[in-house]
Amino acid sequence: MKKKALVVLLAMAMVFAFMLSACGGGDSSSDEQVLKVVTEATFAPFEWTDEESGEIVGFDPDMMAAIAEDQGLKLEWVNMEFDSLIPALESDQGDIICAGMNKLAGDRADKADFGDTYFKSRLMLLVAADSDLTGLDAVTPDMKLASQIGTTGGDMVKQMQEEGKIAEGIVLNQWTDCYLQLQNGEVQGVIVDKPVGYEYLMEHSDIAKYVGEGFGEMEEFAFAVKKGNTELLDKLNTGLANIKANGTYDELLAKYNMESE
To answer: Cα separation of 48 and 59, whole Å?
Structure first.
């Protein structure tokens, strides 16, 4: 009888343990899904890496933090090269892209599902502070322009090279590399999104200047998720709408001296 009783007690204990496991136990916070937000953190004021803390900071992280708080989401930021962002979604290495990404460019909308637009911008031309260039129309076929890989500006400089409008369109992995090329005189200009160019000029007006007017088609920045992940996208869109309605979004624009066109 004692053996039978022991077997029954063990069986009951196993059933009880299984029920606790299925219900998530007493503390469900450890089981909360952490969503990976992938970005390319050299795109100030949207995102950059703080030199002291090593954390990714900027408008996008602050905006996503507000959305996450509104929707009860938990986020982890991952830095990678810009042209790796959409492949990261496709291979499940990331859950969300938030990187000042223009959802209208190329075939991006065929590869990822984009949310509502959270910022609009145009491109600008940065040149050396002592340059005689007056704008994009003044660029000549013997000149070189730089921009970042995978961006609208990167596509533009390559197209300008193919059309013979410039000698070479140099496409680099990071904006910091483009700025360095300009500073060293290896290129005559850098094509960059206006708020990013303005941010650079705030601390480097002795090195570069903005010439001419904004150009190119209007860009619409949006976060993105893997194709078909409508549940997550709906939450992000709802969160964005809520932080716009409660004033948080406008506060962040003011914090980073940004103005959407």
So the answer is: 9
